[in-house]
Design goal:
The chain is of the alpha/beta class and 323 residues long. Helix content is 41%, strand content 17%. The protein has eleven helices and twelve strands. The chain has a six-stranded parallel β-sheet, with helices on both faces. It has a six-stranded mixed β-sheet with strand order 7-6-8-9-10-12, with helices on both faces. Strand 6, helix 8 and strand 7 form a beta-alpha-beta unit. Helix 1 packs across helix 3. The termini are far apart.
Length: 323
């Protein structure tokens, strides 16, 4: 039987994970009734904290930086959700979360540790932080650094198989440049497509809805044809679906679309079929790795599983009408 987690306690008690964490760490800021409720659930579930985890704690005055190449990461729905997940742990501990914009080399002062997002080949941020002696945790994977990442390749295979199992054999991957995330998701897309001998094409672009709209509309107008589309992000998928509909195509009647991220409340008339990340778990592992780095523990990495989230944007392949 799987050991109960803080998530399980929070769900059973109807409180936040931050509240559970404060109870476990003996903070006096939790109301007596709430503390008793949480402690009762802990006993009922026979929860035993991980001894290694209990050795780790934030020290007064520590700060944590969040670095992403995006011009304004706060405009990204994924970034907003990830930041909230981080703050659920950092705020109760009194750790300040800082958004790092621009060139890190120009920063007069850097945080106690930094989370790096959207890793690129030969990422200059790694050299800058190493030279300044700042511990790094990647949201991505790397042989030499601490890291946590969703199973991007496995998730892309799940997404693509939704299209191939529906009979689609002309497939398009809507990528996003040279980021590690996009490359891993493209690799998963190609692996699953090649299992059934599907024809594939890849279009580069950004992760936003506007990027998805522009790239897909231009490609279709230039004669690129496909009946199944896998986008590297939900935002791209929304933009791609809007472009196809503006071109007079039915989604999913004529073109099926699958996204990646599992973002809530997307602006689509139907629910998007997507691969959902466990953003809360990624944030939790990332923060634990930061504490391990600050405590001088060995470097390690961890993949976080993803899951298919069925929607209404995949339909069986229907041959084009032939007059």
């Amino acid at each position: 039987m799987q050991r109960p987690t803080i998530n399980d306690i929070a769900h059973a008690a109807g409180v936040s994970k931050g509240t559970v964490s404060r109870v476990l760490n003996g903070h006096s800021t939790v109301a007596r009734r709430t503390r008793e409720l949480v402690e009762g659930v802990i006993r009922d579930l026979n929860y035993v904290p991980d001894p290694a985890a209990r050795q780790l704690s934030w020290r007064t005055g520590q700060t944590l930086g969040l670095s992403t190449p995006a011009a304004d990461p706060l405009l990204s729905p994924y970034q907003v959700l990830f930041r909230r997940a981080l703050e659920a742990h950092t705020a109760p501990a009194g750790v300040q979360l800082l958004d790092l914009h621009g060139d890190l080399a120009r920063a007069a002062r850097l945080p106690s540790a930094v989370l790096l997002m959207h890793i690129r080949p030969h990422d200059s941020r790694l050299d800058i932080l190493a030279a300044r002696g700042v511990p790094v945790v990647m949201i991505g994977h790397h042989a030499e650094y601490r890291w946590v990442a969703p199973d991007d390749r496995g998730g892309a295979e799940l997404a693509t198989r939704q299209l191939t199992m529906a009979g689609h054999r002309d497939l398009l991957f809507l990528g996003s440049g040279e980021s590690q995330v996009a490359r891993d998701r493209e690799a998963g897309f190609l692996a699953a497509a090649h299992e059934v001998g599907a024809r594939t094409a890849t279009l580069p672009g950004g992760f936003t809805a506007l990027d998805g709209y522009r790239v897909v509309r231009r490609a279709w107008e230039e004669g690129v044809r496909f009946s199944g589309l896998f986008a590297a992000s939900d935002e791209q998928a929304v933009g791609a679906a809007a472009a196809l509909q503006d071109l007079g195509l039915s989604v999913p009647g004529e073109v099926s679309v699958v996204g990646f991220d599992g973002l809530p409340e997307l602006p689509l008339p139907v629910r998007l079929t997507t691969v959902a990340q466990d953003i809360a778990r990624i944030a939790e592992v990332a923060l634990h790795l930061v504490q391990e780095a600050l405590a001088g523990q060995p470097v390690r990495g961890e993949y976080v599983p993803v899951r298919l989230q069925p929607g209404e944007t995949v339909a069986p392949y229907r041959p084009p009408f032939q007059p």
